């Protein structure tokens, strides 16, 4: 952050404002069990924008939204975006393309560009998310991991009538 402030004060100010917006969102949804897909997509775009400040176009985000309404567990998309960034090493010539597709389910996938020295992770975040979906949707989500692609298919939880 110090380097960004030295290089471009206006860009640093924009970054801090965006970061503050994200932090407010996290605080707002931390006590909710479900959030609308629209809100979560909006948050995911802002979060990814911050990641692009850091990584440039080494990671790309494509969202195909068919307008299906429903809810998902808060911060699901942020966790999956972070997972793709953490486990891959994109470059501008060979970017990691993260795709979010919303239809009957919500699918988040990315091509795999493995890091050379990958450390073994616990997988705790995905396990916790899986447990939440089992409890809230009475369905588990599917994880597909091939040599070239990683994808997670999540159930969309219908909107609750109030």
Give descriptors for this structure.
162 residues, two-stranded antiparallel ribbon, alpha+beta, 7 strands, Heat Shock Protein 90, 44% helix
Question: How does this model look, in words?
Answer:
The protein is α+β, with helices and mostly antiparallel strands and 162 residues long. It has one domain: Heat Shock Protein 90 (2-Layer Sandwich). Helices cover 44% and strands 22% of the residues. It is built from five helices and seven strands; from the N terminus they run ααβαββαββαββ. The chain has helices at residues 2-7, 9-29, 37-55, 76-87, 124-137; strands spanning 35-36, 59-65, 71-72, 96-102, 105-111, 142-145, 149-155. The strands form two sheets. It has a five-stranded mixed β-sheet, covered by helices on one side. The protein has a two-stranded antiparallel ribbon with strand order 1-3. The longest helix is centred in the first third of the chain and has 21 residues, at 9-29. The N and C termini lie far apart (44 Å). 22% of the residues are buried. The model has no long low-confidence stretch (mean pLDDT 87). It holds the Pfam family His_kinase. One of its GO terms (cellular component) is membrane.
């Amino acid at each position: 952050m110090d380097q960004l402030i030295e290089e471009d004060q206006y860009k640093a100010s924009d970054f801090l404002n965006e970061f503050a917006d994200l932090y407010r969102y996290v605080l707002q949804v931390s006590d909710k069990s479900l959030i609308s897909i629209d809100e979560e997509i909006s948050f995911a775009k802002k979060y990814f924008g911050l990641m692009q400040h850091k990584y440039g176009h080494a990671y790309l985000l494509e969202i195909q939204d068919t307008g299906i309404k429903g809810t998902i567990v808060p911060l699901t998309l942020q966790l999956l975006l972070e997972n793709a960034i953490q486990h891959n090493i994109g470059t501008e010539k060979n970017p990691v393309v993260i795709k979010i597709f919303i239809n009957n389910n919500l699918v988040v996938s990315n091509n795999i560009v493995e890091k050379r020295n990958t450390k073994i992770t616990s997988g705790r975040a995905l396990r916790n998310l899986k447990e939440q979906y089992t409890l809230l949707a009475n369905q588990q989500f599917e994880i597909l991991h091939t040599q070239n692609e990683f994808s997670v298919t999540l159930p969309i939880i219908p909107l609750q009538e109030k």
